[in-house]
UniProtKB/TrEMBL annotation:
PANTHER family: OS07G0170200 PROTEIN, SLL1193 PROTEIN. This is HNH nuclease domain-containing protein. It comes from Niallia circulans (Bacillus circulans). It holds the Pfam family HNH_5. Gene3D superfamilies: 1.10.30.50. SMART domains: HNHc. Residues 21-76 form the HNH nuclease domain.
Amino acid sequence: MNCLKEFLNNELSHVSTGLLRKRFLIFSRDNFRCVYCGRNPREHDTTLEIEHIVPRAKGGSDGIANLVTACKECNAGKGDYLLNKRQKEIILNKRV
């Protein structure tokens, strides 16, 4: 147990409380599911990540409205691809 505590302290020492709160808010808003494929870690062997709808490289912000929950596989597959208008509408409607 000491090793786990030490690991978590080292890994999370650089992460601000605000950032952790923001991540939790996004995961919670998206029901802890990937907005693209619907997978969640309890039902599938996957890891959830925070994904930019409009990638930062293409001018997207770090604001909550531009961030969604994505599984590791979908996030990697999307890369810096820009969603078309219809795709964005589908993703945003899943939040309601």
